[in-house]
Design a protein that fits this description.
The chain is built from 11 helices and 10 strands. It is of the alpha/beta class. It folds into 2 domains: 3-165 and 242-305, Rossmann fold (3-Layer(aba) Sandwich), CATH 3.40.50.1820; 168-229, no CATH class. The strands form 2 sheets. An 8-stranded mixed beta sheet has the order 1-10-9-6-5-3-4-2, with helices on both faces.
């Protein structure tokens, strides 16, 4: 049964010309699945950070959203590790953060990356938390390999197409159009990028989020995300792979009260694929629930884990 719950409130407080594309690691070759061959995608060695905790408890694994990175959840991960005593893993998805770049940006490939990583680190089954794109990756992993997922949290995302409520196409185009001259100081480079993004990305908080991807390499400022691959596969990222089998474990859909990403029209598909789903709303939060209301976010996670 699909049930609604309201997030409890806690006092506000802090938890703390075209640019080239950065790839610190070699670009991975296309797997045959990318061209319809049907073979499993080749997993990539993802960059991650693991906080220590009680090995007897299922670890918490956090997956970021599109154009994010594991560092977006640094404060959340530390808080959850301290408050729950569990190990907490944050991961950079392929083509994001410090993880390798690849022309394959399918959810099947991202799920395969985790199917390789989690057993390797001894973290399965885990409590899997995914935001936005990371939420879809988490949902697909739970549907494909339920034995790896003790329980699931999908943050402000549904197992349906989300193109109509997404501005990411405009964000990607604006980032691709940014040009920063060589040999400028970091403060100047960030200001130039911010100025060039602002006509399209008018929300200051969103611009600052995008600018976390601006890095310096050999005296030049570049985007560390693989913008070409993300733009090429954006339609697939906005969609969700069709699935028939349901995930039998406990599932929380945690949505922002001000966000249009999880709608009543999605409930039937949520109920079909995740029959034990509970839906919970965090008031006064947009799509980036963890950034808008970090204390309410961690409280909701703790309540679900308990």
């Amino acid at each position: 049964m699909l049930r609604w719950a309201s997030a409890w409130r806690l006092p506000r407080g802090a938890l703390g010309a075209r640019s080239p594309i950065l790839s610190r690691l070699p670009v991975a070759p296309c797997s045959s699945s990318s061209s319809g061959g049907g073979a499993e995608p080749r997993p990539l060695p993802l960059s991650y950070k693991l906080l220590d905790g009680e090995a007897a408890l299922p670890a918490i694994v956090i997956l970021h959203g599109l154009l994010g990175s594991k560092t977006n959840f640094n404060s959340i991960a530390k808080a959850l590790a301290q408050q729950t005593g569990r190990r907490v893993l944050t991961v950079d998805a392929r083509n994001h953060g410090a993880s390798p770049h690849s022309p394959d940006m399918s959810y099947e490939a991202m799920s395969q990356d985790l199917q390789s990583l989690l057993p390797e680190l001894g973290l399965a089954p885990c409590a899997l938390i995914g935001h936005s794109m990371g939420g879809k990756t988490a949902m697909l992993l739970a549907l494909q390999r339920p034995e790896l997922v003790d329980r699931l949290v999908a943050v402000d995302i549904s197992p349906v197409e989300t193109t109509s409520v997404s501005d990411f196409k405009a964000y990607l185009a604006a980032m691709q159009a940014v040009h920063i001259p060589g040999e400028v100081p970091r403060s100047r480079a960030r200001k130039l990028a911010d100025q060039q993004l602002s006509p399209v990305v008018q929300d200051t908080a969103v611009r600052h989020f995008l600018l976390t991807n601006l890095v310096e390499v050999d005296g030049r400022f570049v985007w560390r995300v693989n913008l070409d691959a993300l733009a090429q596969h954006l339609d697939n990222i906005m969609a969700f792979p069709p699935r028939q089998d349901a995930y039998p474990g406990p599932t929380l859909f945690l949505r922002g009260g001000n966000s249009p990403f999880v709608l009543p029209s999605h409930h039937a598909e949520i109920r079909r694929l995740f029959p034990r789903a509970v839906l919970q709303t965090v008031p006064d939060a947009g799509h980036w629930v963890h950034a808008d209301r970090p204390q309410d976010f961690t409280a909701a996670i703790r309540g679900f884990l308990a």
